[in-house]
From TrEMBL:
Monomer. Keywords: Cytoplasm, Signal. GO terms for molecular function: heme binding. This is Heme-binding protein 1. May bind free porphyrinogens that may be present in the cell and thus facilitate removal of these potentially toxic compound. Binds with a high affinity to one molecule of heme or porphyrins. It binds metalloporphyrins, free porphyrins and N-methylprotoporphyrin with similar affinities. InterPro entries: Reg_factor_effector_dom_sf, SOUL_heme-bd. The keyword Chaperone does not apply. GO terms for cellular component: cytoplasm. It is found in: Cytoplasm. Pfam families: SOUL (PF04832).
């Protein structure tokens, strides 16, 4: 079959238009993914009514909720963290908080002052005896402006870390996030998950706080267990 010069020109133009449109589509998808990723750390008014003390909070998608717990999806995000070994978790939290606070108030390679965000999370080993030494990992969420690039800490015991995309089982409670209270609610969450035959990371959980010590009422705290596989929703209320 012989193709005339005019047909050849027509095919060439059509081919060029096709690839041009495909490039535009790919660019739009990449841009959308970029915007979505950055939006996971955003305006405090977006995620909940209780994240109000900082300009930005960790955003999430609510998968399902019930009386005993809720299931959330969090996209990957960058944090700054430090580890403290101690018998007492409340002592460890105070020491770790001071280290991270110094980092966001200028003790970094750029001398940058970085806004505080919420929540503050502490990774806790799930099974510890009353007087057993344990390593606690406290983390501050980095604001959206520092999610792609954050200055390195001056303190070698402070480090930047990426938390992966994950589904999380969440138990919310009020008051102060002191050790006996936090352990009570993490235990309630664990019991509810075991009853639901959910699969989750059992080696550790997170104590999660949204409030400064200056806030005396309407405080909000959470216990988190990271889901493994497809999460199991709680019974309907």
């Amino acid at each position: 079959m012989t193709i005339s010069p005019s047909q050849a020109r027509h095919f060439a133009v059509a081919r060029r238009d096709f690839f041009s449109k495909m490039n535009c589509l790919i660019g739009a998808v990449v841009l959308l993914l970029s915007i979505t990723a950055e939006a996971r750390v955003g305006n405090s008014s977006e995620p909940t009514s209780y994240c109000t003390e900082t300009k930005e909070c960790l955003l999430f998608d609510l998968i399902c909720e019930g009386k005993e717990y809720e299931v959330r999806h969090y996209e990957a995000a960058k944090w700054v963290a430090t580890e403290i070994e101690s018998i007492f978790i409340d002592v460890a939290k105070v020491k770790a908080f001071r280290k991270l606070y110094r980092y966001i108030t200028g003790e970094n390679e750029e001398g940058a002052t970085i806004d505080m965000t919420a929540p503050v999370i502490t990774k806790v080993k799930a099974e510890t005896s009353w007087l057993e030494n344990s390593v606690y990992v406290l983390s501050f969420l980095l604001p959206s402006a520092y999610q792609k690039h954050a200055p390195q800490p001056n303190d070698t015991s402070v480090y930047l870390t990426d938390m992966p995309d994950m589904n999380v089982y969440v138990k919310s409670y009020g008051g102060w996030i002191l050790s006996p209270i936090a352990k009570k609610y993490s235990g309630q969450l664990k019991k509810a998950l075991d009853n639901a035959q959910a699969t989750y990371q059992k080696d550790y959980y997170y104590d999660v706080g949204y409030n400064s010590p200056m806030k005396l009422t309407d405080r909000h705290n959470e216990a988190w267990y990271v889901a493994k596989g497809t999460p199991v929703c709680p019974p309907a209320e």
